[in-house]
Amino acid sequence: MLAIRTKDCVVEITTKDCDEVESFSVLRIEAKEELRKLLEGTQIVYITKHNGNKVFTFKDIEEFHKRWTTLALSHKDKNHRFRESAKYLTTIKGKYCLIRDVAGHTISLATRTDNWSYANALGISDKFADMFIKNYNSTKHHGQENTAKLYFDDSSYKKWSQFMDNKYMIGLQAYRHQVKTGEINPRTKEIHLVNDRYNVNTK
């Protein structure tokens, strides 16, 4: 079971097994007790459904944030594959990036607006962009989107999701090494958090 934080006070619960790597926005819930504490700890404004998943909206954003962050940090301590909320400057040449929507379980090809890479917005080479398009063209819904997009049910979705996870970690490690050795301009040496509200040290 996955708990996906789509907004500050909104969490979507899904039972889809998408092999999602845990992060500060996606937690794998193994024990029902964890979910119970999370849901019962703060006041729920309303419960809705999205794509067959339950969506909870909480009233007290600050209180819920504290509970969510505490749970996320406990998972981070136990999971060596826990994805950090950091971005890095990519040195990979190319015009495109892959955008992963963890709530909608889709991966889309998009044009880069800059050279920063995140766990769910990864800069890729034109070679991999062509490979992604080829996989998209073999799906039953090709040609129906404004851009190449893979859905959870597509056979190549899991492959590209894992590709993003692996390339992100390699790129982040390389960036940190470049900062340490002075290869990166000192003005950009900081490892930036995607969202500073988590107060997580990623250096």
- Tell me roughly what share of residues is in helical segments: 25-40%
How far is the first residue's CA from the last residue's CA?
Answer: 30 Å
Overall geometry comes to: globular
Rg, please? 18 Å
- Tell me about the largest β-sheet: 5 strands, antiparallel
Which key features would you list for this structure?
203 residues; alpha+beta; 2 domains; five-stranded antiparallel β-sheet; four-stranded antiparallel β-sheet; globular; disordered C terminus
Sum this structure up briefly.
The chain is α+β, with helices and mostly antiparallel strands. It is 31% helix and 27% strand. The relative contact order is 0.15.
Task: Report on this structure.
It is a single chain. With 203 residues, the protein is an alpha+beta fold. It folds into two domains: 2-78, no CATH class; 86-198, no CATH class. 31% of the residues lie in helices and 27% in strands. The protein is built from four helices and twelve strands, in the order E-E-E-H-E-E-H-E-E-E-E-E-H-E-H-E. The protein has helices at 32-40, 61-78, 126-137, 157-180; strands at residues 2-7, 10-14, 26-28, 44-50, 53-58, 86-89, 96-101, 106-111, 116-117, 121-124, 149-151, 192-193. The strands form three sheets. Strands 3-1-2-5-4 form a five-stranded antiparallel sheet, covered by helices on one side. A four-stranded antiparallel sheet has the order 10-7-8-11, with helices on one face. Strand 4 and strand 5 (53-58) form a beta hairpin. 28% of the residues are buried.
